[in-house]
Write a structure and sequence with these properties.
- The structure is a single chain.
- By secondary structure, the protein is mainly α.
- It is built from 2 helices and no strands.
Length: 105
């Protein structure tokens, strides 16, 4: 009897750990998005504030960096999401990683 309670507690802890990992993955994506937006805003403001000889090149470089960060963030998010889905299969929960409802516990 105590062994089944121990197994249920262990499964619950594993499911909660997966939920924390899902939220950490979402936070990481939002950090990439925020940094990408900062670089695009920096590109716009540098061109407006400073008079540079090659200001257009600086703006383009900042936009390229911004786009690269956004693509890296999206790729990282979906790569980690797939790994989380595989971990969830091993624990025995649902595979849908996108939703964060308490019904999955």
């Amino acid at each position: 009897m105590e062994e089944t309670k121990l197994n249920k507690d262990l499964i619950l802890r594993e499911k909660l750990a997966i939920e924390r990992t899902v939220m950490a993955n979402q936070r990481t994506f939002l950090s990439f998005l925020r940094t990408s937006l900062y670089f695009s805003i920096a590109g716009l403001t540098i061109n407006e504030l400073l008079v540079l000889k090659h200001g257009t090149i600086v703006v383009v470089v900042f936009f390229i960096i911004s786009l690269m960060l956004l693509i890296a963030g999206i790729a990282t998010y979906f790569k980690q999401r797939k790994k989380i889905a595989n971990s969830r299969k091993e624990v025995g929960g649902k595979v849908d990683v996108g939703e964060t409802s308490p019904n999955r516990l």
